[in-house]
Every structure is written in C-alpha cells, then in structure tokens.
Design brief:
This protein has 106 residues and is mainly α. Helices cover 81% and strands 0% of the residues. The longest helix has 31 residues.
Length: 106
C-alpha cells in the first residue's frame, strides 16, 4: 500500500502544490485589475448618452431663450472652451483606452 501512496504523495506535492499556488496568484492579480471590459462598454455607452442629452438640453435652452428674452440658462455653455476642458480630457482618455484595447486585440 505504501508503494502506491508514496509516488502519489510525491506527485501531489511536486505538481499539485505549485499549480495551486500559481493558480491563486494569477486569480489575485486579475481580480484587482480594475474595471472589466463590460464595465468599460457600459461607461462608454453612458458617456454617449450624456452627450446626447446635453445636446438636447442645449436645443431646449436655445428654443426657450428665443421665445423669452429674459431667459438665462443656468447650465454651462456647451460650446464654451472653458466649460469643455474636462470633457475634452475625458474624450482623450477614452480615445487612448480604445487604442490600447485595439492593440491588445491585435
């Protein structure tokens, strides 16, 4: 009986233990890596939706301002460069992330 158990134990220690350790090291590294590709896709979709809604709000404000001369929009001005600096930075980050994603696929 010991003739069977000793080789099995040696194989389990020499192969199984390193495999188990390396497996969980890989899991730990990938688990803390940030957002997933599904999360990125959702964020990009939400970003596109907010841009469309912002354009619609600009249109509504323009129409109301045309009808009522004393109307002052409380929002930021869409085409004002000072208001769009953060938006431009976000668009640059998204473009860089898309480029990195394309490079990893290739």
């Amino acid at each position: 009986m010991d003739e069977i158990l000793i080789p099995f134990a040696v194989v389990a220690i020499m192969v199984g233990l390193p495999w188990l350790i390396l497996h969980y090291i890989t899991k730990w590294k990938t688990a803390g890596g940030g957002i997933t590709t599904d999360d990125e896709a959702l964020l990009e979709e939400l970003y596109a939706l907010t841009k469309r809604l912002d354009d619609r709000m600009d249109t509504v404000e323009r129409l109301v301002a045309h009808d009522h001369a004393d109307f002052k929009p409380a929002r930021l001005i869409a085409d004002n460069q000072a208001d769009n600096e953060e938006l431009d930075e976000l668009e640059a980050l998204l473009a860089r992330k898309r480029a990195e994603h394309r490079e990893t696929r290739a």
